[in-house]
Amino acid sequence: MGSRKKTKPLMILLQTFEGSNGALSSVELVNQLREKMNKTTVYRILQRLEEGGDIHSFMGKDGLKWYAKCKGNKKGQKMDAHPHFQCSYCGKVQCMDLEISVPTIPGYQIDEAELLLIGRCKNCLEELA
Amino acid sequence: MGSRKKTKPLMILLQTFEGSNGALSSVELVNQLREKMNKTTVYRILQRLEEGGDIHSFMGKDGLKWYAKCKGNKKGQKMDAHPHFQCSYCGKVQCMDLEISVPTIPGYQIDEAELLLIGRCKNCLEELA
DNA sequence: TTGTGAATGCAACAATGTTGCAATAAGTTT
DNA sequence: AAACTTATTGCAACATTGTTGCATTCACAA
Prior knowledge:
2 copies of one chain form a homodimer.
Chain A: H1 9-18, E1 24-25, H2 26-32, H3 39-51, E2 55-59, E3 65-69, E4 84-87, E5 93-95, E6 109-120, H4 122-128
Parallel strand pairs in A: 4-6
Antiparallel strand pairs in A: 1-3, 2-3, 4-5
Chain A binds a DNA duplex through residues 6, 8-10, 26-27, 30, 37-41, 43-45, 63-65.
């Protein structure tokens, strides 16, 4: 008894997303998992998870890559387009549960759309009040 | 005659934007101006131009910072929100002359919105046809 | 057990961007 | 014009984010 299998990095990473409501930046992930796995592994697993459609990524205004768990949308389907909100005060990023309207442009083929909203988040606004 | 003032880096940079219809990435700018000025100067001038409202910046899907000249909108006014299109084939980025609709989110203050559209641009589509 | 391919760690590298400081240029005051 | 002051630039060194090559380990199948 007791000889349980070592939890795999991929699982650890997925759990990290479960335990967080917002999006996680690469930096946050690398730091938070520093003792459990190598940063190369973090990046590689993120890539695998993204390719597999389990998480999606986008660039923050801060120049960091942010990752979040995919909710409703099935694997491979790119156009689930919800906006992301980045607070310019606390820096945190969240997925917003809204549909965005993606414009059509004659002559162009649009495969993906990222709407990044920048401002002040609920928490930071309340702290101010 | 002939002793004209040396053109200042800031002017050179602004002219670079004039001569280009699309957006320019930091990398492109640093490379293109390598012989005329130091990369530190490029970055510093970009910052000044952005603060002054002459250009605006946004993150591309490629993780690079892209810059483009501000057209209609007056200095300081952030919410002119037009989308940017990045071609995943040639990598080029353009400002799209469209208004985008920025959602409202109760409890949040939205100061800025960036819509990045990713797909295949006119040129790349035509080459395929 | 052995063999095979995938997954991981490690170190070194690459690219983008920033900082400190010295040198220069531009503008002001006397 | 000379002296002073401030802003601009260049350079080198650094910081951060991310990638690559290669050796090692792990998981699984024969």
